[in-house]
Amino acid sequence: MTTLSRAGLEADLAANIFAAAPAASLPPGRVGAEVELIPVETTTGRRCPIEGDGCCATLPFLRRHGARQGWTETRTAKGTPCFALPGGGTLTFEPGGQLEYSSPPCRSPSALLGLLRSVVLPLRAAAANDGIELLVVGIDPANGIEGAPLVLRTTRYERMAEYLARRGTAGARMMRQTAAFQMALDMDDQPWLRWRVLNAMAPHLVAMFANSPKYAGRATGVSSARAQVWRALDPTRTGLPYGARAPIATYLDFALDAPAILLPTVDGEHLRFGDWLERAAVTLDEWRDHLSTLFPEVRPRGHFELRSADAVPPQWYAAPLALAVGVVYERRALRAAADLLGAPDLGLLDRASRLGLRDPALASTAADLAQIALEGCAGLGPAYFHPSDLEQARTFFDQYTRRARCPADDLQSVRVVAA
Predict the structure, then answer these.
(1) Which residues contact 220 (CB under 8 A, 6 or more apart)?
(2) pLDDT at position 389 over 50
(3) Mean pLDDT, to the nearest integer, of 115-137?
(4) If we measure between CA atoms, which residue out of 50, 249, 227, 240 comes closest to residue 153?
(5) H or E stretch including 375?
(6) ∠ at Cα 204 (199, 210), nearest 5°?
(7) Hey, where are the domains in the chain?
(8) 74 secondary structure, DSSP code
(9) What is the 3-state secondary structure (H, E, C) of 257-313?
(10) Helix (H, G, I), strand (E, B), or coil: what is residue 161?
(11) What is the CATH architecture assignment of 6-317?
(12) Is residue 183 within 8 Å of residue 31, measured between CB atoms?
C-alpha cells in the first residue's frame, strides 16, 4: 500500500481535482447543472415519503412517470434508488427525500436548457397530477426539522448527520430540507483566473438568486435561509477556501483541517484528516471520500461546481447559466469581472444571504456583473447561447437584478401552510 503524504495529496489535487479532463479542452466550455426539488403534499404541505402506500410517496410516482418516459431504474453507489434518463443524466434522492436531477455535461447552455426543460417541466406537471408539489425554493418553507426526517440511512449520511448534529441543527436542515441550482463549468486554459472570479462571484450568486425567505411556516427575515444554514454548518468544510499565491496548497490546508467524518472516531471525536495522515496509513480512496464531504461555495472536481444559488423556478434557469458562462467562458468578460469583483471576500456571504440585493453595494455590483455576463454571452455567439434563451436571462436581470430584487422578494407576502 502506498503511504500518502502531504506532497502526494497536493500532487493528487493538481492532477485530478484542479485539472481539466481532455474532453473539456474544446472552447467554448461545457456546462452542466444539478436541479434539486423538494416534494411536498399539495394539499397539506407535508413532506412526501420516498416509499409507502399513500398516493404521495415519491418512488412509486417516479416509477410510473419514468416508465412512460423511458427511464431505467438502477441503484447508486450508496445503494439508493436512481433513475437513468434516456436524454442523459440521472435522477436521485437526497437524504431528506429531495429529488435531484444531474445533467450530463452539455456543449452549450442552450442545449442544457433544452434538456432541463424536457425533464423538469413534465416531471413537475406529472407530480402535480399525483398530488405532489415539487417546490423550487432554497429551503422547505412549511416544515421544521421534525417534519423532514432523514429518510436515506446510508453509512455516509448517518455519519454526516451524527457529526453535524454536534454543531447544532444546521446540519439536519442542510441535509434534509435545502434545494439548490448548481452549475458545473470546465476549467480549460485559465483555471486560476476562473477559480478567483468564481469564488469572488459566489456571494453575488447567493444574493441574486436568493429564494428562501420562509422556513417552518414563518418569515425568517433573511433572503436566503438556505445560505444562512450553510453559514452555520461547519466553517472547516464550507466557505471560500481561496489563496491567490498558492491555490492548491490553500485548498489542501482546507481539506486537511476538516474533520474526517467518514473515518472512525477516536475517543468519541472526529480527527482532522491531517491528523489521520500523520498517525495512520490512510488510503487514496479515503482521501477522495473525504474530499466529497467538503462543501465550499465553489468546489473543484476536475471541473468547477458552483453551489451558491438557491433553487429557482424553471422559467429562470437561463439567468444563472448566463451569469456563469457569460463571465467565465468569454475572455473579455472574465477580465472585466475580475476587475469588478476583486479578491474573494468571505464576509460578503453572510451579507448576501441576509439581505440579498437590499444591500446597496451587492446590488450595484450584481447589476454590473449581469451586464458583463450578457455581453459575454453575446460574444460567445447565437449558436452557443440562443437569442431566445439569452432574452429569458435578460428578462430576469431586468425584472430582478437591475431593480435590486431577488426571487425571495416575490415570496415575502406569500402565505405558507405549516404542517
Answers:
(1) 212, 213, 214, 228
(2) yes
(3) 98
(4) 50
(5) helix 360-380
(6) 125
(7) 6-317
(8) E
(9) HCECCCCCCECCECCEHHHHHHHCCCCHHHHHHHHCCCEECEEECCCEEECCCECCC
(10) helix
(11) 2-Layer Sandwich (3.30)
(12) yes
